[in-house]
Here is the input.
Amino acid sequence: MSKLSTESYKGVRDFYPKDKFIQNHIFKKLRETVERFGYVEYDASILESAELYKAKTGEEIVNEQTYTFTDRGGREVTLRPEMTPTIARMIAAQERELAFPLRWYSIPNLFRYEKPQRGRLREHWQLNVDLFGVESNEADTEVITIAYSILKHLGASDDAFIIRINNRKTINALYDSFNLSEDERYKVSKLIDKKNKISKEAFSRTLSDIITTEKGSLLEQILSSSEHLITHLGAEHPAIKDTREIIKKLSEQNITNVVFDPTLMRGFDYYTGVVFELFDTNPENSRSLFGGGRYDDLLDIFGARKIPAVGFGMGDVTAKDFLEVHDLLPQYTSSTQVHICTLTTLQKPAAHALARTLRNANINVSLDISNKKIGDQIRYATRQHIPYVIVIGEDEVKTEIYSLKNLDTGEEKKLTASEIISLFTTHA
Amino acid sequence: MSKLSTESYKGVRDFYPKDKFIQNHIFKKLRETVERFGYVEYDASILESAELYKAKTGEEIVNEQTYTFTDRGGREVTLRPEMTPTIARMIAAQERELAFPLRWYSIPNLFRYEKPQRGRLREHWQLNVDLFGVESNEADTEVITIAYSILKHLGASDDAFIIRINNRKTINALYDSFNLSEDERYKVSKLIDKKNKISKEAFSRTLSDIITTEKGSLLEQILSSSEHLITHLGAEHPAIKDTREIIKKLSEQNITNVVFDPTLMRGFDYYTGVVFELFDTNPENSRSLFGGGRYDDLLDIFGARKIPAVGFGMGDVTAKDFLEVHDLLPQYTSSTQVHICTLTTLQKPAAHALARTLRNANINVSLDISNKKIGDQIRYATRQHIPYVIVIGEDEVKTEIYSLKNLDTGEEKKLTASEIISLFTTHA
Here is the structure.
């Protein structure tokens, strides 16, 4: 028989226990933060009808950038590339039964058919946080506060990142003031969206190609700072007021690493109001970490009533890169707390009994069944990153007093089973 | 624009918060149990090379019963139908770096292309528990003990289920004693595997068609009880001794709802020794809940050294059905613990401040931003199954004493923020 490859499929990851430990650490922090704000978890299958994406995204993108295939029943199926269409579908389906506002979150895995590169794999997990049913900017403020709180809960300091905020309505008002056509708006938005990836010269040149040199340089000047934009549209413009009010409300929550950035686009598909992103200030990882915005029209495609919505997504690959660069990743330690070793097989019944007692007290215990020499049993615990060992010999069976050894410090304590239990219970 | 369907793809599930609550409850119990026994979590992508399944399963089954498609790079990709080939691949890849024995678990989602029916969907989640590197039956005993402990931890009583145990080696010894050919063994095994789904007459008739009436009725008689099998093979036969020793070791752990069932097959693909299953004794749900066994040869396909292995899988759909039939499902309650309401918008700053204080003490708090009438705000909390509300009016802002109302009992307590915190901390 020919030897089979042990490699994973291209662009996806195997999670060995050490990798899963990191992912679990990140997911735990995400869950804790969003649940603190009253968000409840939902989920769905990765399999969705291809129709769901064609409606908003266009046939071309669905076919080129997603995993889409035809099942044997003739159905066109897509491995979900994002969660927002799914949550919109689920809410539209039960619109009448659900009590709004809805605060929902999920950590789905998503699929993209593209060349794997730093921060972008073919499969990644993404926290999705969405608030449905509130029109006022209290909703936008809450969602941005959660995004901020996630990075804080992961250990980041305020100067590790900055929150950029913009508003699709100010962009539209700006385009209105320049009398831009639909086609010009689309091209200019696309250009602004990739502003940071091209040179200033290339940007100006392309802009003047779209809307004349004169208009282009004026637009560029207005976009260069929020002050210019405010002067241009007027401080009383509703979208300007809305955006500044959110920034003020955030500062009332002591969130001050915030800028009003008129060039922030966040794509330009379904956003209808505020858009925002969290940007890494570390020069080694200078890029957008994650973001979101307001999308009030998404449920239209299901013929449901209009339900205002605001939310964001945060990918696990980007999150891990951020934590790595800022030295915030935890050291691996096994979920197993104690490894029980036995000098000879005669102590097995006592070892089993002790393991049962500790497990009943919610302590995670592995029992040595390798039947190797005692030194090897202890070395094994070290290699598995299990923090404590107990060795059971004749004496321990007689006295029921066990020596609990901390493999990190080498410290040993003579304890009864119930003393071991209280030691672990106090630590937890 | 035509209206898009809000239905999910055929044979998969949407998890609304109430559904996700149930799944989270089950997963939490599974994780807790397996971690108590020292198992650590791993994971992998659902995308695998189709090759991985063809090696052991045969091309036909891969094409007919799995989701397999060709990606644009010409790779044949399968949505994993089971986790065992993946864990075998991962272990073979790092065989030299890993410290054995390995105790690993995962809760992957798996895909099968088949007609959806009770207990079998196109996508389901399955706990996988595996122990690699131990040849002795201490490993089999441990894994069966975990399977038992999972059902107990989910709330089941000992009489709700029975553990059936058999051994592929006793089956093989039995076939040897009948001088059966490879083809006869395959057909007889297949027939025994579906014994409970056909009548006794149909079973006997088909059996005599395969191996003559005389041999058939003798075989049937031997299979009718473990005592007959033991008499036939001899109590000193290694596979008989091994099986009975496991049953004895389980009884030393107070696990006594166990039978030695010579007809238990559990499929017959990669198992090489002990096989077992947990069977629901409730007449309304009389069926196999889950099971597993020993598979010592699986890493062969990667050209890796032989590593003994034993494990089992437990599906979430079956688990949920079991809990439903035995009335063990918990009542839904939101992960949000308190909903803070405000009489007027004037109390918003105080409400935000209280929410922050409670959240900093790890309490999950939602803040009303609907700006509806106070009665509606409280009704909303009830509909969301949030157990407590706090209403903030002028008095509360002044006194900083809040009335915490239990929406289930109607009971109200006047408390300071720190009293609220200690109330929730003691409850948890």
Summary: Chain B is about 40% helix and 20% strand. Chain B has a mean pLDDT of 93.
